[in-house]
Amino acid sequence: MAWRAAPVLGVRDVPAAVEHYQSMLGFECPGGMYGPENERVYAVMRRDGIEVHLQIRRRNVWAAARGSYERSAYLYCPDVDSLHEALRSAGALVAPPPTDMPYGNREVVLSDQDGHRLAFGVDLGRAESAWETAPVLGCRDVEAAMSWFVDTLGFSCPGGLFTPPDHEPVYAIVFREGAGVHLQIRRRPVFLAERQAHEGDAYLFVTDPDALHEEYAAKGVTIIRPPQDEPYGLRDFTIEAPTGHRLTFARDS
What we know:
Helix content: 10-25%
Order of helices and strands: EHEEEEHEEEEEHEEEHEEE
Mean pLDDT: 90
Number of helices: 4
Oligomer: single chain
Structural class: alpha+beta
Number of strands: 16
Largest sheet: 8 strands, mixed
Low-confidence stretches: none
């Protein structure tokens, strides 16, 4: 089994977010919502083989204005232009139209009701056969974050740093076992308020979370929660990156 990644998006109201992703974005919620009846706390949305996780976040999701370049998740799909027409017809807030980007992707960006920006893109340099998804993590120093993922977590960065002329690096995509994580410049503080214990940023499915936990513990990675069997049927553990992001690694069911 290859690794795969899913973004975890904090939302103020999980049932409302689920309804929005179903009616506007064409996702399904086959496993239903988790948590007590009076306050659902988590849901896994699926479309064409990809996942987006929705998680309750009781504080403001965005406590400050966002830069125009900031995204929350990157989703690869085979045909961005057709998807753009379908999303616009469904009433999704999409702007601007599909655009060819300098890093080789054609993409379109939309905002959901919680202010998350979802980028849908196609890599013009390779054929797309299925949908894929990747979390986008905001970093104050993209090069330092990329180096940590490569040197400590065992990822690679085959495309290198994307650095505009006369500018610091603004973007990098790191991979391990087929799973990608996007690192993006974020000049304001990434987390403006104390984080609650349940908050995460990315969920990565792996072949052996226990062996990976041992690998990371030996390297001195900060372990927030060791491997454990969860009531939703997965075994997972959570680490914290120097950027403050929390990454959960799980064995798929």
